[in-house]
C-alpha cells in the first residue's frame, strides 16, 4: 500500500476551503447574531477590523488603524504630568476588575504616563456557545469556523455623554466601542480612557527631594535629638508613605478603624508638611488645626470610603473608593519607576480577548507595512490567524478585496509557509477568473520585477517551459531563496489570462517539489540513476550548505525522489538528516509516518499524540518503567477489585479513607484494562510508535461526574450556554506568607491558538498551574468552590477549620457574592454534595441505563473539547494514581489508622508532618499528611540547587503577620519519590529559573526528628545559617549593583557647626510636647508597611535633650568600604563552607534520579516530554511523543536539564531499591518471517538452522544503501 502523504491530495479532500472565496463555500450555514452595538456595522459602510493581538499592539503604541482616539488626543490640550506618546505599560488597577457570566471588566493604568485604560467586555448569554473560540482553529479554514475575534471600531461616545459621565473621581476623556465582526459572535469591547488622577503639582511635590532634604536639615538643626536617626533617604520616601496611608485607609474594615495622621509626626512633617497640605485636602481628608506655641499640632483624618458595591465585591468605577484606588495605583507607578519592577497585565488582556501575544515586535519593520495593516494582523502569526483575519476583512472591505489577496500572498511569502502560499495563490486565481479581469498588463511593474528575479528580461513573452527552466536554474544557483523564486513564479502566473499557461506555472510552484526540479537542483539531469554516489553527492551538498534554507531545499529535492521511487531507506536517511540539522519536516511532506518508519528495536516504543496528550504520553512512558504499576497493569486480574456493591462500599481510598461510588469504580476498571492493553503493546509492538486509546485518555482526563453528565447531555442538549473562557487564576507564591499549606489552583483553561514555535504543534495548549498541595494531600478534605463563570480577580481566603483533617477555601458566590464551598478530597476523589447528585431521571418511555452503561458509553464516545484540552502533569499523575487505586483491592490495612494500603500507596506516597506554633508557644502543633509528591520552589531570580528549592518548602518560615513559626519534615519515604518543581507564579507567569538537579538526592536533612534531639538543634542552626547566607547574598548583590562611593564621601566637608541646644526641662511646661521613649526609635518603613508612628498619638511626644554634635571630616572611607566588602565575601564563604560541611555528612538516605518530565512554553501553552534513565544500560532516553532517542552521557543530560527552566516533575527512586522498583523493559523482537516453500538445506541435505537476527536497522553507511534507482524510474 502506498502511504505517502501528498499535499495536493489533501487539498483535494479540503478542496472547498481552498477553491472558494470567503462566504461562497456551498453547503456551509453561518448563523448571524446582532447586537445594538454591532448594528453600527451597517451594510455599505466599510470599516476595517483587526485581530485582537494587533488591536492590543496598536492600543499600547497609540496607533489605531481606524479609531481616531489618539489623533484626537494629539490635538487636545491635555494638562498631564507625563508625556503619553510612548508604548504604554499597563498594570492592573486596584480592586476594580471582575467577571460575570456575561461581562468582564479589566481596569488598568499606564506605569509611565498614569493614564487609565478600562476594558469593558460583554457578550450575550443566549449566544455564549457561538462566541469565537480558538478551539475552532483547523487548517484549512472554512467559512463556518470562527476561532478568533475580529475587532471593528463601532464608534465613539458623544461629547455630551462624556461630559455627563466625567467627574473628579472619573475624569473620562473618551469611550470607544469595538465589536467582533464574526457573524455569530456577540462579543464587544468598550475602551474607556481617563486622565491621571494626580495633577502635575502633586507629583512635583512628592518627588521634590531637594525640598524634602531642606526641611529635614532644618528639622535636624531645630531638634537634633528627635531627628538623630533620620537619614537623607527620607528625601525619596514620600510616595512610599502616601501609598501606605492609602493602603490602610482602603483596608480599614470599619469607619472606626480609620486613623488620623498627626501633623507633628516626624516623617509627615518632613516628607509632606504644610507644602503638601493641599494634597490631603483634595484627598478629602478632614483637617484639624491646633496651634500650640505657634506650632500646628493638628491632624488630618481620612474620610472612610464606602465598601465595594460592584459585582462580587469589586469596586465600582467613579466612586470615592475607586478614586482612592486610582491615586494609590499612580503612587505605586512612581514607586515602581524608582526601583521595584511591576508585572504588566497585557498577558491577561490577551487571554481575555482569546489571543496570543506576538513576541519580538519592537523594531520589526513589517508591523506597519500596509499589507499587515490591511489584513489587521501582525508579523509571524500562524497561517490560521492570517486566513481568519482575511475572511473577516473580506466581509468588511469589499472594495479592497484585490488588495487583500495581494496582501495575503505577500504575507505568505514573509512567513515562508507553503500551505498559506498555496491557499493565497488559489484565492488569487479564483478571484481573477471570476471577475474575468485577467490580463497580461504589468501596470505596477511586478511581473517585470519577477522576470528580472528569475534572470529573464521583461516583458513576459516567454512560453511556460522557458519560465519553468529559468525557475529551476534560479533555485539550483541559489537554493536558499527557493521560496522567493516560487513567489515570483506565482506572481507571473497570477498575471496571466491563459488558464493552461497559469495552471502549468502553478503546478511547478506547488509546495511539493516536482521530480524534474529536484533532479536539476541535485545535478542529476542525464544521470543513469540515484545510487550510492548520487546520495553521497547530495549529502555533501547538504553539509556544505551555509543556511538552513539551503539545506531544506536539498532535502526537499531528495524527498521528491524518495517519494517517486518509494524508497523507505532513502526516506529514513532524509528524516535523519532533517533531525541532525534541526529542520522541521514541511507540511505535506511525504516523509515517513509511524507505521512506515524503519524500526530500531534497541529503542523503546513511542506513543503517538492523540490530541494534545504529550503530558499524558510522558507519564505513561514513565509509569511503564515502574515495576509495581506495570505489574498491576499486566496482571490486573490478580489485583482487580470486585464490582459488587459491598466491595465498592468497603473500599476506602487514600489517607483520607474516602469512599467511592460505582461510577468511579467502573471508570477505574476500564482505565486499568486499557492501561494493560497499552503496556502490552509497548512490549510487543513492531512499529516505531503505538497509539494510546481515546478510551484510556478519557478515563484519565475526564472526571466521573463529567462522563455521567455528558452521557446525559448527549441526548439532552444543555440549554445553558457557557461564556467565553476567562484567564487562568494564578497559583500562589511559595508558602512563606500564609498559614495554610494548601495551594488553591482554581485554574480555568484559556483556549489559545496553537503555537507554531513549540516542539509539538499538536501539543501547544498546556496548563501548568496546579500547586502541590491542592492535589497531593490524601488525608484532607479541601473545600473548593465549583468552577464558576463569575471569577473575581482577588486571592482566595484560606482558613483551617474543623481540626487538622479539613481545610476550607472560601470563595464569593457569583450569584449572591457570598461564600460557596464544595468538599473535595485532595487526593483527587470528589465528595459530591447531595444537591449535586449525578442520578439521572429518565423518561418512563425509555429504558434507563445503568451507571456502568453510562460510564462505558461515555468513555467510548465522549470527546475532550475536540482534543485540545490539556491538563497539568501533576494533576494527570494524580488522576492516574487515583484510578489505579480505585481499580484494585487493598493488600493490607493499617491497624492504627484504618488506612487501606496497596501497591500505589506503598510505592509513591510520602508521609510529611507540618509543624506550626505561635511565637508565644513552646509546643508545635502537628498535621500529618500523605502526599504523592513533594514541592520544590525555584529561586525568584537566578539559579539555585534542588536542595535550596526544597528548602523553601521544608525549612523554617517565620510568618510575622500571623506571628507563627512553621516548618515541614518527612516522616516516611516511599521507594519512588516524586518532586514537583512549582514554576507557576502570580499573574499567570512562569518561573523559568534553572534548578540544579543532582543525580543522587540525599534526603537526610528533611527527615523528621524530635524537637529536643541534637539533630533538630543542628537543623535549627542550619536554618539560621541558611537565612544569614541569603541575607548576605542579597546585601552583596545590592552593593555590587552600586559603584564604590568612598571617594565621593571623603570629598565631603562638614563646614557647618551644629550649635548646642539648651536641655529641655525635666518637667515640661503645659503645652510643650513630649515623646514617649518607646516611640522615639527609628520607624521601619517598607513598601506597604505599617505606619503606626504616623498616626495621631494620644499623648504628646516628649522631646529629649539633644546632644551637641561636633563637625568632623570623614576619613578612611575607601579602605573601610573595601574592608566591609571583603568581610561580606569572607563571611559568606565561611558560612557556606560550614553548611556544606555539615550536609556532606548527611548521606544516609540516597535517592537516584530516574526520570525528568520537562515542559517548554508558557503556563498556558507549551509541550511536554520525558527523560528516563535506564540503570541497566546506563543510558538516558528522551521520549517525545512518537520519537525516542538515546543519550549515553548522564553528565550531558543533567547539565542541560540544570541550566534551563524546562524540568518540571522529577522522579527519584531509593538507591538500594532501584533494581526492584524500576527498569526499562526491552521490547520483543518479532520472529523472522518463514521462508516460503521447503526449508533451506545445507550441502549434505540437513536442514540448515539460521539465527533469527533482529529486523534490519536504518542504513547509515554507503555499503548499506539501496540499489541504484534506474533513470527511467525517475522520468
From TrEMBL:
InterPro entries: Papain-like_cys_pep_sf (IPR038765), Peptidase_C19_UCH (IPR001394), UBP14-like (IPR044635), UCH_repeat_domain (IPR025305), USP (IPR028889), USP_CS (IPR018200)
Domain USP: from-to ranges: 605-1215
Pro residues bias locations: 720-735
EC number: 3.4.19.12
Catalytic activity line of the entry: Thiol-dependent hydrolysis of ester, thioester, amide, peptide and isopeptide bonds formed by the C-terminal Gly of ubiquitin (a 76-residue protein attached to proteins as an intracellular targeting signal)
Bias (Basic and acidic residues) ranges: 776-787
Keyword Lipid biosynthesis attributed: no
Positions with biased composition (Polar residues): 755-768
Protein name from the UniProt record: ubiquitinyl hydrolase 1
Organism of provenance: Neonectria ditissima
Amino acid at each position: 500500500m502506498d502511504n505517502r502523504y501528498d499535499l495536493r491530495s489533501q487539498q483535494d479532500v479540503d478542496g472547498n476551503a481552498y477553491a472558494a472565496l470567503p462566504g461562497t463555500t456551498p453547503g456551509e450555514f453561518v448563523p448571524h447574531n446582532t447586537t445594538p452595538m454591532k448594528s453600527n456595522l451597517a451594510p455599505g459602510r466599510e470599516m476595517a477590523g483587526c485581530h485582537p493581538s494587533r488591536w492590543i499592539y496598536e492600543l499600547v503604541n497609540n496607533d489605531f488603524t481606524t479609531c481616531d482616539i489618539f489623533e484626537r488626543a494629539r490635538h487636545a490640550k491635555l494638562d498631564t504630568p507625563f508625556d503619553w506618546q510612548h508604548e504604554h505599560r499597563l498594570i492592573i488597577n486596584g480592586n476594580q476588575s471582575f467577571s460575570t457570566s456575561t461581562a468582564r471588566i479589566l481596569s488598568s493604568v499606564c506605569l509611565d504616563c498614569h493614564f487609565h485604560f478600562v476594558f469593558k467586555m460583554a457578550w450575550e448569554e443566549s449566544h455564549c456557545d457561538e462566541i469565537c473560540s480558538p478551539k475552532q482553529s483547523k487548517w484549512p479554514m472554512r467559512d463556518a469556523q470562527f476561532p478568533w475575534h475580529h475587532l471593528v471600531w463601532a464608534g465613539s461616545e458623544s461629547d455630551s455623554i462624556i461630559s455627563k459621565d466625567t467627574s473628579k473621581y472619573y475624569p473620562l476623556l473618551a469611550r470607544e466601542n469595538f465589536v467582533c465582526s464574526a457573524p455569530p459572535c456577540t462579543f464587544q469591547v468598550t475602551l474607556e480612557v481617563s486622565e491621571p488622577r494626580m495633577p502635575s503639582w502633586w507629583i512635583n511635590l512628592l518627588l521634590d527631594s531637594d525640598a524634602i532634604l531642606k526641611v529635614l536639615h532644618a528639622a535636624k538643626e531645630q531638634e537634633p535629638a528627635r531627628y538623630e536617626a533620620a537619614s537623607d533617604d527620607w528625601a525619596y520616601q514620600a510616595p512610599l508613605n502616601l501609598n501606605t496611608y492609602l493602603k490602610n485607609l482602603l483596608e480599614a474594615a470599619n469607619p472606626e478603624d480609620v486613623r488620623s495622621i498627626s501633623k507633628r509626626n516626624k516623617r509627615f512633617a518632613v516628607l509632606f508638611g504644610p507644602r503638601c497640605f493641599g494634597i490631603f485636602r483634595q484627598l478629602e481628608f478632614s483637617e484639624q488645626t491646633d496651634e500650640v506655641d505657634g506650632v500646628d499640632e493638628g491632624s488630618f483624618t481620612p474620610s472612610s470610603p464606602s465598601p465595594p458595591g460592584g459585582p462580587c465585591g469589586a469596586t465600582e468605577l467613579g466612586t470615592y473608593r475607586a478614586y482612592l484606588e486610582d491615586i494609590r495605583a499612580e503612587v505605586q507607578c512612581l514607586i515602581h519607576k524608582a526601583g521595584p519592577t511591576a508585572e504588566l497585565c497585557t498577558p491577561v488582556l490577551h487571554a481575555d480577548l482569546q489571543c496570543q501575544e506576538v513576541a519580538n515586535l519592537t523594531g520589526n519593520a513589517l508591523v506597519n507595512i500596509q499589507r499587515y495593516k490591511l489584513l489587521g494582523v501582525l508579523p509571524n502569526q500562524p497561517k490560521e490567524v492570517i486566513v481568519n483575519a482575511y475572511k473577516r476583512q473580506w466581509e468588511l472591505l469589499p472594495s479592497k478585496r484585490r488588495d487583500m489577496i495581494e496582501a495575503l500572498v505577500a504575507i505568505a511569502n514573509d512567513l515562508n509557509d507553503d500551505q498559506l502560499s498555496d491557499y493565497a495563490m488559489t484565492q488569487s486565481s479564483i478571484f481573477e477568473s471570476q471577475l474575468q479581469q485577467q490580463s497580461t498588463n504589468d501596470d505596477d511593474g511586478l511581473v517585470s520585477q519577477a522576470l528580472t528575479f528569475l534572470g529573464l528580461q521583461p516583458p513576459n513573452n516567454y512560453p511556460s517551459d522557458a519560465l519553468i527552466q529559468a525557475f529551476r536554474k534560479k533555485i539550483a544557483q541559489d537554493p536558499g531563496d527557493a521560496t522567493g523564486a516560487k513567489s515570483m513564479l506565482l506572481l507571473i502566473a497570477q498575471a496571466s489570462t491563459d488558464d493552461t499557461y497559469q495552471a502549468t506555472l502553478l503546478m511547478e510552484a506547488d509546495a511539493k517539489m516536482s521530480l524534474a526540479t529536484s533532479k536539476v537542483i541535485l545535478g542529476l539531469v542525464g544521470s543513469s540513476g540515484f545510487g550510492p554516489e548520487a546520495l553521497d553527492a547530495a549529502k555533501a551538498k547538504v553539509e556544505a550548505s551555509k543556511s538552513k534554507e539551503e539545506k531544506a531545499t536539498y532535502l526537499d529535492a531528495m524527498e521528491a525522489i524518495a517519494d517517486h521511487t518509494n524508497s523507505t531507506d532513502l526516506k529514513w536517511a532524509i528524516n535523519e538528516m532533517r533531525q541532525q540539522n534541526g529542520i522541521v519536516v514541511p507540511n505535506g511532506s511525504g516523509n515517513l509516518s509511524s507505521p512506515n518508519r524503519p524500526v530500531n528495536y534497541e529503542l523503546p516504543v513511542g506513543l503517538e499524540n492523540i490530541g494534545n496528550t504529550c503530558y499524558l504520553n510522558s507519564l505513561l512512558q514513565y509509569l511503564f518503567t515502574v515495576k509495581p504499576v506495570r505489574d498491576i497493569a499486566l496482571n490486573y486480574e490478580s489485583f482487580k477489585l470486585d464490582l459488587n456493591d459491598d466491595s465498592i462500599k468497603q473500599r476506602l481510598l487514600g489517607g483520607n479513607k474516602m469512599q467511592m461510588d460505582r461510577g468511579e469504580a467502573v471508570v477505574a476498571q476500564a482505565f486499568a484494562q486499557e492501561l494493560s492493553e497499552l503496556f502490552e503493546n509497548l512490549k510487543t509492538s513492531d512499529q516505531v510508535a503505538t497509539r494510546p486509546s481515546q478510551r484510556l485518555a478519557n478515563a484519565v482526563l475526564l472526571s466521573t461526574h463529567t462522563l455521567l453528565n455528558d452521557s446525559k447531555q448527549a441526548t439532552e442538549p444543555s440549554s445553558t450556554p457557557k461564556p467565553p473562557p476567562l484567564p487562568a487564576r494564578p497559583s500562589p507564591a511559595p508558602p512563606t506568607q500564609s498559614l495554610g499549606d494548601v495551594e488553591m489552583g482554581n485554574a480555568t483553561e484559556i483556549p489559545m491558538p496553537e503555537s507554531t514555535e513549540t516542539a509539538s504543534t499538536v501539543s501547544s495548549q498546556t496548563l501548568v498551574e496546579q500547586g502541590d498541595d491542592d492535589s497531593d494531600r490524601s488525608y484532607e478534605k479541601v473545600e473548593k468552590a465549583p468552577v464558576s463563570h463569575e471569577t473575581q480577580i482577588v486571592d482566595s481566603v484560606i482558613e483551617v477549620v474543623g481540626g487538622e483533617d479539613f481545610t476550607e477555601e472560601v470563595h464569593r458566590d457569583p450569584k449572591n457574592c457570598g461564600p460557596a464551598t464544595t468538599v473535595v478530597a485532595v487526593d483527587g476523589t470528589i465528595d459530591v454534595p447531595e444537591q449535586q447528585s449525578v442520578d439521572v431521571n429518565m423518561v418512563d418511555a425509555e429504558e434507563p441505563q445503568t451507571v456502568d452503561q453510562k460510564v462505558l458509553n461515555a468513555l467510548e464516545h465522549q470527546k475532550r473539547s475536540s482534543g485540545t484540552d490539556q491538563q497539568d502533569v501533576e494533576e494527570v499523575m494524580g488522576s492516574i494514581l487515583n484510578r489505579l487505586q480505585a481499580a484494585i483491592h487493598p493488600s493490607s490495612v493499617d491497624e492504627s489508622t484504618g488506612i487501606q494500603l496497596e501497591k500505589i500507596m506503598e510505592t509513591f506516597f510520602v508521609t510529611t508532618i507540618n509543624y506550626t506554633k505561635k511565637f508565644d508557644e513552646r509546643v508545635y502543633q502537628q498535621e500529618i499528611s500523605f502526599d504523592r509528591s513533594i514541592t520544590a520552589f525555584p529561586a525568584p531570580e537566578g539559579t539555585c540547587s534542588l536542595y535550596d528549592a526544597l528548602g523553601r518548602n521544608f525549612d523554617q518560615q517565620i510568618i510575622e503577620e500571623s506571628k507563627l513559626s512553621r516548618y515541614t519534615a518527612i516522616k516516611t519515604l516511599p521507594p519512588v519519590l516524586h518532586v514537583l518543581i512549582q514554576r507557576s507564579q502570580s499573574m499567570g507567569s512562569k518561573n523559568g529559573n534553572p534548578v540544579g538537579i543532582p543525580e543522587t538526592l540525599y534526603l537526610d536533612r528533611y527527615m523528621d526528628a524530635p524537637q529536643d534531639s541534637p539533630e533538630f538543634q543542628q537543623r535549627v542552626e542550619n536554618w539560621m545559617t541558611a537565612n544569614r547566607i541569603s541575607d548576605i547574598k542579597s546585601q552583596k548583590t545590592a552593593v555590587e549593583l552600586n559603584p564604590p562611593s568612598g571617594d565621593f564621601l571623603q570629598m565631603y566637608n562638614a563646614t557647618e557647626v551644629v550649635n548646642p541646644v539648651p536641655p529641655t526641662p525635666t518637667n515640661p511646661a503645659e503645652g510643650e510636647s513630649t515623646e514617649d521613649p518607646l516611640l522615639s526609635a527609628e520607624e521601619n518603613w517598607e513598601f506597604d508597611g505599617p505606619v503606626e508612628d504616623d498616626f495621631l498619638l494620644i499623648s504628646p511626644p516628649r522631646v529629649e535633650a539633644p546632644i551637641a554634635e561636633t563637625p568632623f571630616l570623614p576619613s578612611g572611607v575607601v579602605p573601610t568600604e573595601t574592608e566591609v566588602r571583603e568581610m561580606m565575601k569572607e563571611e559568606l564563604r565561611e558560612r557556606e563552607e560550614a553548611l556544606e560541611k555539615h550536609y556532606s555528612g548527611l548521606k544516609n538516605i540516597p535517592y537516584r534520579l530516574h526520570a525528568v518530565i520537562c515542559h517548554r512554553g508558557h503556563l498556558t501553552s507549551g509541550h511536554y516530554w520525558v527523560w528516563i534513565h535506564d540503570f541497566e544500560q546506563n543510558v538516558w532516553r528522551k521520549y517525545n511523543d512518537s520519537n525516542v532517542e538515546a543519550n549515553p552521557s548522564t553528565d550531558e543530560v543533567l547539565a542541560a536539564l540544570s541550566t534551563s527552566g524546562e524540568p518540571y516533575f522529577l522522579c527519584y527512586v531509593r538507591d538500594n531499591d532501584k533494581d526492584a522498583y524500576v527498569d526499562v523493559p526491552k521490547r520483543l523482537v518479532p520472529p523472522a518471517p518463514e521462508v516460503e516453500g521447503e526449508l533451506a538445506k545445507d550441502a549434505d541435505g540437513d536442514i540448515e538452522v539460521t539465527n533469527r537476527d533482529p529486523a534490519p536497522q536504518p542504513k547509515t553507511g554507503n555499503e548499506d544503501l539501496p540499489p541504484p534507482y534506474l533513470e527511467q524510474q525517475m522520468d
